[in-house]
Amino acid sequence: MGNSFKYPFLFIALTAGIVLGIQIEKIFSGDNLRDGIRKFNDVLTYTEKFYVEEVDTPKLVEEAIKGLLDQLDPHSVYIPPKQFDSIEESFRGDFEGIGIEFQVVNDTLTVVSPITGGPSEALGIMSGDRIVKIEGEDCIGITNDEVREKLRGKAGTKVIVTIIRHGIDEGIEYKITRDKIPIYSVDTHFMYDDKIGYVSVSRFSETTYDELNDALNDLNTTGMKKLILDLRGNPGGYLNQAVKIADLFINGDKKIVYTRGRRSEFDEDYFAKRSSAYEDIPLIVLINQGSASASEIVSGAVQDWDRGLIVGETSFGKGLVQRQFPLFDNSALRITISKYFTPSGRSIQRGYENKKDYYSDLGERNEEEGDNLKHTAEQDSSRPEFKTSGGRTVYGGGGITPDYITKSGKLTNYTRDLLRSNLFYQFVLKYLDKNGDRLKAKYKDDLDKFRREFSFSPEEEKSFIRFAMDKDVELVEEEFNKDKVYIFTRLKAQVARNYWKNEGWYTVLLDIDIQFLKSVTLFDEAEDLAKLK
């Protein structure tokens, strides 16, 4: 009786133990992940082995990865090997090459500008030079990718280029020693008047804090008493750079941003650490729909601490933090690991349930222009409320909405066609071939004189219209008249850029920049908000 009961019991207990063990293993060993890998491997194997035609297996794998990530948020992405190096360069802040900005115009490789501090500038290569040969080989018809392939290379290596320059009959040969070329994230800085300093920051790379600190120190020695920090169109970058830059303006040990994720090791709190000379300077930060991520960290911290005035249009609304994981073939996975929150506790990430419209619906915002210090522009929304240090209500869940809303204005289709066809640069290139010597003699190095005095003659304006028509952009008179000031100011800025680089470009365009011009008038409000009076 004892044995006849014992063996069935042992069998049942053993079976139950095996079943329970399998279930526990599923819970603790990621069995779903293992099954998924097995299924994907089977599908790929069957496809490669039995599909009616030869298949490009690496391409299938990459498309499968993209499909997988498409089920997550819009900022978790796969970076193919071909894109990896250029993306890394933009964030690292340098590359190796001859140091030119270029465009291929009418099949000819044209120098837009030699990069400051690079070997091309040191040798005297100039804006408007046409490179017609590389290593003795004709390069008419070269593509952008071929330019990078032929002119980039390890620092210390040499390349010979032949240049055609206006006013010189024969080609000029240069032997250029490649070097490490800086990619600047501070596009320009200068004094707008005797008190207001202006700085434009285009992204947050490894070098941005150092660049901005140097720019501010330079402006400080020139007499800066107030600052406009332009983050419009800045898509973000490194979080640690955003923290250090916010720390330039925020005093004490105040919290700047914090992150929270599913895994606790991704939870971080970032505070102001070091004092700076700019913690009490009247501050205005310009943002727009293209200001995202790290730009929103800076503007969010400034707004939450009532440190300065945010002016422009509501920012993009990216409050997700990514970490990049390199893969074996020089590709990478950039995946969201946490969310970031402003000091008041705001998550500014927009909803992405409808990923198809995630980028396109930015243009549908209908913001009322004017004073928004109390943030009444958002008060009817369903977004959660938070308080700034001074007790003002601000809102989470949809970007940083400015304290003063002012729109940039929309361009007509005619002007967009001019931009799309790159006609501004092409026309100015032709214009300078004819008028460059006269302009040099008249304005020399005096940018301020150029900004005040230069304008295109009525005949030159007509010449631009004819030039555009020859390039298949037909005149739409009503749209042309609406955008006429912008069109010829942009052409003027293109001329200025040829001689004074980014400072010339920005100095001219700011004269018609609605958001900037409004911000100049708002420093009293910025000082009141920050209690600097």
List keywords for this structure.
single chain; 533 residues; alpha+beta; Pdz3 Domain; 2-enoyl-CoA Hydratase, Chain A, domain 1; 4 domains; 6-stranded antiparallel sheet; 16 helices; globular; disordered N terminus
Domains, number: 4
Strand proportion, as a percent range, falls in 15-25%
Q: Under CATH, the topology of the largest domain is which?
A: 2-enoyl-CoA Hydratase, Chain A, domain 1
Low-confidence stretches: 1-29
CATH superfamily of the largest domain: 2-enoyl-CoA Hydratase, Chain A, domain 1
Q: What is the highest CATH level, the class of the largest domain? A: Alpha Beta
Shape from CA axes? globular
Q: If strands are numbered along the chain, what order do they take across the biggest sheet? A: 10-11-12-15-16-22-19
Q: What integer is the average pLDDT? A: 90
Which structural class best describes the helix and strand composition? alpha+beta
The level of helicity is 40-55%
Radius of gyration: 29 Å
Largest sheet: 7 strands, mixed
Number of strands: 22
Distance between the termini: 98 Å
* CATH architecture label of the largest domain: Alpha-Beta Complex
Oligomeric category: single chain
Number of helices: 16
